[in-house]
Hints:
The structure holds 2 protein chains of 2 kinds.
Chain A: H1 3-7, H2 23-31, H3 35-43, E1 56-64, E2 71-86, E3 91-100, E4 104-111, E5 114-121, E6 136-141, E7 146-161, E8 166-174, E9 178-182, E10 191-206, E11 213-228, E12 236-253, E13 257-270, E14 275-277, E15 280-282, E16 292-309
Parallel strand pairs in A: 2-5, 2-6, 2-7, 7-8, 7-9, 8-10, 9-10, 10-11, 11-12, 12-16, 13-16
Antiparallel strand pairs in A: 1-3, 3-6, 4-5, 13-15, 14-15
Chain B: H1 9-31, E1 33-40, E2 44-51, E3 56-62, E4 65-68, E5 71-75, H2 81-93, H3 98-107, H4 116-140, H5 149-161, H6 164-173, E6 182-186, E7 190-192, E8 197-198, E9 201-211, E10 214-215, E11 219-228, E12 233-234, E13 238-247, E14 256-258, H7 267-298, H8 302-337, H9 339-351, H10 353-379, H11 384-421, H12 434-456, H13 463-490, H14 556-564
Parallel strand pairs in B: 6-9, 7-9, 8-10, 9-11, 10-12, 11-13, 13-14
Antiparallel strand pairs in B: 1-2, 2-3, 3-4, 4-5
Amino acid sequence: MGVRRLLKKERGDGRRTRNRPSLSRQVVHGGVGAVVFALVLWAGMALPSPVAAQTWSTTQYERQIRGETELRVEVEYGMGTVTLLPAGPGILYRARVRYDEEGFTPIHDFRPGVLRVGVEGSSRRTSLRRGEQEGELTLRLSRELPLRLKMEFGAVRSELDLGGLQLQQLDLSTGASDTRVRVSEPNPGELEQATFKVGAAAFVATDLGRLNAREINVEAGVGDVRLELGGLTRSRTRVQAKMGLGSLEIRVPDTAGVRMTRSTFLSSVNAPGLERNGNVYLSPNWDRAEVQVEIHVESAFGSVSILPIR
Amino acid sequence: MPRHLPKGVPSLVLTLLVLLLVPLAGAAQERVVVFTQVTVSSQEAGIDLEFADGGTLSTVFRDGRVLVNGDEVGAFTPGDALERSWRSLLGQAVAADNSQVAELLRNWTPPEDLSGEGARSAEALTARIGATFALEDAAAQPALPALSPEAERELLQAMVLRPERLQALTRALEDRRAGLPIQAHIGESVRVEADDDVEETLLIVDGDLLVEGRVRGDILLLGGEIELGDDARVDGDLRWTDARIRGDRGAVRGEILEVTGIVTQTEAQLRAEIERTLRDSLMEVVRAEMEPRVSVRTGRDTSRSVFRNVLRGLGGLFQTALTFLLLVGLGLAVLYFFPRHFETVARTAQNATGRSALVGLAGIVLAFPTWILGIVVLAITIIGIPVMLLWLPVFPLAFAMAMVLGYLAMAWNLGQWVSRRQFQGLEGFETSRPAAQIGMGVAVLLAAFALAHLFRMGGPVLGIFHGLLTFVGVVLSMVAVVVGLGAVILSRAGRDRHYAGGGWSPDDDPFGPEPDPYGPRGTPFSSRPPEDNPFRSRPETSSAEDAAPSDASPSASEMEWETEGGAPEGDGLDREDPHGR
């Protein structure tokens, strides 16, 4: 029996229908199977729902350099905003965490040469409800000693400035994130490999050439990925990009020689200025360029663009 | 010592000098703090320090207890003057850099108006903090003054004989570069040769200074003259009063400040003032954020809790009222601009409820996969990529609009039902108007939320009703959305009346006659010529629910169906007028 019965009125003599079932019974009868799904779907939408109070904590850690010769940094952050910046003179690291103590716990563990910092979800709750604020992590790292940096983010918006950090290792793994990486100043050291693993996310990295990395690896699931290799000084840099679904854009200085190979399934390739020979794309200046970039792209669905930076 | 000096003045001056120099020791102390941790939360507020010698100081207010290095030294009542003062300190510390945190802690003074337990706790706390720093001060003492007894005596004389210099000296020493010892020269001329490298701060009183080499510290010149040679280099500041400067001022890497009785607002002072103002503002924000939560968490301030519950309830009511206005506004807009589409959706939801529910459920389940599939299909080709960019936002938007339209259509149906029930209290209202019916329907759907917020004001005792009513409201809304969405899909957003039932007589139509795009008004689709009927091939099946026999007499349109021969009794298409007009 549906809502129509509920709303039905006899015609002709204007008599009203008697013995009508209750409203709730009829309505629930019509949509009982939908409730479970709809509860989940609708909860985040237009209907009013109570928002649990958040209780904010702020903690700041700052440590001076005391004879450390290198630092391994592990950053874990589930949800919120992350900012990474270089620290001032004499400071080994400075971390400021703002988190909702109802659902999250700060991580801070320092042993000589190793720092683990971030925020983890407690057992009670690990997701934001509608209307709730998100936490923040601002981390500053020393430029005065070599760093091995590993970052794991969940649903995070992040702004990472790696300028001037002496990076020896860089691993960034993100979930559903909006990540922006920039290298405002060159890496004084040499980076063997920079690895970016991006889930369902928007990922933009600029001036990656300043990382002075032998190899840059990017693995992206779904989303938009843009890599700008500005500031390249190495004679040879390898870029490996794996893309599931989405658009991948790699920008290379127009003076650099580019050689791209691809292994794509249902993806379009847009590489103006590169000469194609099968699955190999080559810039005309490849042989004589002082700076060369080798790119290998694997893409399932989406578009791949190799564009120059002018 | 001059004889005309009153008794006790030398000791006063000495005390003053010591006070002036002690902050230098404090500044030296800051450098040996290697780690700071400042925590401000509703449950605790604390500062942890680690010193270079391995020592630590942990001071925290937690659970009504004041703890220093784990020892309970006192107690506080959440929100009392002692805790407010401590949190105020932490408000500054959390915005300060490492070098300032220790100094803030050292200089913290509890409120003077404390009494009883609060006063005892404050005294014990400051004593422990003072003792910790006193140890450090003792350790730092050797680095203090490089003044010889002779220089000290001369300085004392110079200061006492010309007391105005004391003020200048005070200013000259303010914010001085920390750490370097002082080399004082009273009434003598000093020369820093080209190959000299002076690692101290030079204090010249009533004397001349010629700099040809390097001075790593500051130069404090009180009366006299300074000449900076071509190869001179001063790493610190040049602070002077009643003196003359000659030579290249560019040799001074720091600032050149005249310290007089009149306060000079230098750039550094202005900057410090701005920083202080910002810090104070931030402190206020942090305090405002933390204080109410303390009282709620501890439950000691029940009046605040009650007030908070009432405020939250009122806020929820306001939120519900806004939602009501928004939904009614949307409903009226749809009613005004798309009356027939809207009515078709509403009637489809009425006449094919079970089918609508199933279709709505399927729509919800399949929406996301459809969206992704669309993206994939469009992303395959270059031509499709621009379309995909359109598809990405348009599909979710259209889906959300369909859900809202369906919800409003269900609200309208509900409003019609309320209108026909002729509830007491509604006699004075023109409830037969579609606009009023939409308003009533939305009100019914949101009533549970409003009641829930009312119960919320009653605090934790009535909290269960708040939860139950919220649940009921969510369930009702879910059902409205699912069935409504299904009706939107079935009726092709109100363009297809196939499931809306027949019998669109002008009398029943609240919008009056309008050209029917599907044919003459009142003509069932299936009675049109086969070649004109776009739905001819559609199987006229119905759900079991819809197949229930009607208890009403067949209407004129039903008769038409029956004469058509294609619609047996209980065909699932209700030809009665649901609006009861």
